[in-house]
């Protein structure tokens, strides 16, 4: 079986360690733990590896967040990955920092990367790993907040949270979404 893991983020050094790039950070760790590395291919940084008999493909779209669906749709078609085997790793303002939730489907909740995926990949019925970044910003400052680095306290917690996200992605691949949600969503 083929699985496509998508870490959402923006390319460029200025976005590297921002809240909006947590998907890239988790994808980097997932591939590093598998002993892989990324290549630059069409619309994405791309890596692949085998895990328990599954072909795992990991992408970080190079289309910028607002056009993520272009990369996701291209690679789903190219690799013949069914939507049930797609996992999108995304930052989520609606969840407190440190909360990580796996969901089988859902709305974009205003997230431009998810809106793009919905528009180009057939709706909202795809799995996503939501990484809570909180909503601790003044009214009208959402863009500044998501494009800012994690604060010092958050940075101390990030390695353990990224590790938990990697474990959840691996569980999704190995035992499926339902059992993973039962075992790991808290």
Automatic annotation (TrEMBL):
Gene3D superfamilies (alphabetical): Peptidyl-tRNA hydrolase
Pfam families: Pept_tRNA_hydro
Protein's UniProt keywords contain tRNA-binding: yes
Active site: 20 (proton acceptor)
A biological process from GO: protein quality control for misfolded or incompletely synthesized proteins
Keywords for this protein: Cytoplasm, Hydrolase, RNA-binding, tRNA-binding
InterPro entries to which the protein is assigned, alphabetical: Pept_tRNA_hydro, Pept_tRNA_hydro_CS, Pept_tRNA_hydro_sf
A single Gene Ontology CC term: cytoplasm
Residue(s) at site: Stabilizes the basic form of H active site to accept a proton: 91
Top EC class, one word: hydrolase
Main location: cytoplasm
Site (Discriminates between blocked and unblocked aminoacyl-tRNA): 10
Listed NCBIfam families: pth
Function: Hydrolyzes ribosome-free peptidyl-tRNAs (with 1 or more amino acids incorporated), which drop off the ribosome during protein synthesis, or as a result of ribosome stalling. Catalyzes the release of premature peptidyl moieties from peptidyl-tRNA molecules trapped in stalled 50S ribosomal subunits, and thus maintains levels of free tRNAs and 50S ribosomes.
Subunit structure: Monomer.
Protein name: Peptidyl-tRNA hydrolase
Originating organism: Sphingobacterium spiritivorum ATCC 33861
Lineage: Bacteria, Pseudomonadati, Bacteroidota, Sphingobacteriia, Sphingobacteriales
């Amino acid at each position: 079986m083929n699985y496509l893991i998508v870490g959402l983020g923006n390319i460029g050094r200025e976005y590297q360690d921002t809240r909006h790039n947590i998907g890239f950070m988790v994808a980097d760790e997932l591939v590093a733990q598998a002993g892989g590395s990324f290549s630059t291919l069409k619309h994405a940084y791309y890596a692949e590896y085998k895990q328990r008999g599954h072909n795992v493909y990991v992408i970080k779209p190079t289309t910028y967040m607002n056009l993520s669906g272009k990369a996701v749709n291209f690679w789903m078609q190219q690799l013949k990955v069914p939507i049930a085997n797609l996992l999108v790793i995304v930052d989520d303002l609606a969840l407190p920092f440190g909360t990580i939730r796996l969901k089988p489907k859902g709305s974009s909740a205003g997230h431009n990367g998810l809106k793009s995926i919905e528009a180009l990949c057939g709706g909202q019925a795809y799995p996503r790993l939501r990484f809570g970044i909180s909503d601790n910003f003044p009214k009208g400052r959402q863009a500044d907040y998501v494009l800012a680095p994690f604060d010092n306290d958050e940075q101390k917690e990030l390695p353990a949270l990224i590790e938990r996200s990697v474990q959840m992605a691996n569980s999704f691949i190995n035992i499926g979404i339902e059992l993973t949600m039962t075992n790991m969503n808290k």
